[in-house]
Amino acid sequence: MRTLIPTPRARRDSRKSKYLRQLCGSLIFSALTAPFVVSAEELPGAELTGFGTIGAAYNTSDKVDLLRDLSQTNGVGYSRKIDFGLDSNLGLQLDMRSASGIFTGAVQVVAKRDHAGITPDLTLAFIRYAGDDWAMRAGRVGFDVYPNADSRLIGYSYVWQRPPVEFFGPLIFSHFDGADLQFRHRSNAGEWRFKIYSGITNEKVEVTPTTPFFLLNHSRLHGGHIEFRHDPLSFRASYAELHMANENPALQSSLDQLRAPGISFLIPNAASVADKLQMRGKVFRFSAISATYERGPWLSEAMIGTTLTGNTFIPDYKAGFISVSYRKSKWTHYGVVSAIRPLAETETAIINPGTPAELASGANALNSQMLNQRAWQTSLTAGVRYDLTAQSNLKFQIDYVRSRNNLLHRRVQPDWNRNATLLS
Fold this sequence. Notes:
This protein is mainly β and 424 residues long. It has helices at 19-23, 165-168, 252-258, 270-277, 357-372, and strands spanning 28-30, 46-53, 57-59, 65-66, 82-83, 89-97, 103-114, 117-130, 134-142, 175-187, 190-200, 204-205, 214-215, 220-230, 233-243, 283-295, 298-308, 317-328, 331-342, 377-389, 392-403, 409-410, 419-423. It has five helices and 23 strands. The strands form three sheets. The chain has a 19-stranded antiparallel beta sheet that branches. The two termini are 45 Å apart.
């Protein structure tokens, strides 16, 4: 019988460690944006803009690949000490407007690194119809269950080099096909905003470097948020549900063996373990609250959220961060504390005495994999941003990462000490 979970490479060839000197003096060109307007004779009521990030990242540890988010198979550290694919991307956006201004639309294409290399992705394609205090979009729209979630590829739209990984990294998709509806109510006390949305997802999720990705196609999404703004404060409460339509192909062999006839005599809780490992039919529930304070040169943000999956491959977790930045002239200094923690204990396979060695070995590998999928990580971040123009800047950031589990990592080596420093 095959093992339930394939084991990764345990060793790699030795490398020279001269990369730090190569990185010194290399800052990040974050969101180097060059908008331009197409002439009215060529394309009336349209504006074409471009944006991009050229990013270099260096990981002090060569025992693990650190990721930006779960859409990536390769990271920085084990695969390469210096990496230009962690944060780099290139995008184009076409904005359109009718003569009356009631109808608008946008099409956005972003190229970034994924399992197939540098590939373009149609991230937005919608038509918007708006009144004075309401608006409706239909088509491909961004998933903004968290503030900044639908613009996290546009580097100049936020102060950091990348959104806090512990909070935004586990999000397994960024857009969906459907519609959203937003209302606004203004009064002397402040402004209320309400948004609801529904549709289906269409993205791929990377699993490991040696196993296939699984598709989110046809998974139904519903959600909304309530937001209150009164300068200098704003608050938001969000909730969304994702109904998984497909199975993770990397888990299919394990599921088949756990459900094989007679397996319960050897692994008595095999059926329960399989049910919790299964992805198809699960409902992922995202909820979050956030607060923002912005006055003068100060910008402070705090967010906390939970994701309940009922699944052991992407287990239930809670995450949050606090970010404070201060701007003086063209310079902005910032610091972030972010963390993610598991919410539930993982049920592991119970192996009865007398279980064949090959099956017991596979079950133990599965137990180890499920326990390592739990999310326990903390990052301390410090950085500086220099604004070249209103839409382009340079950033330098240092992240100190301390981790116990592997959800946000790839190619973890057995002798990693669970600490790493990321310079970018």
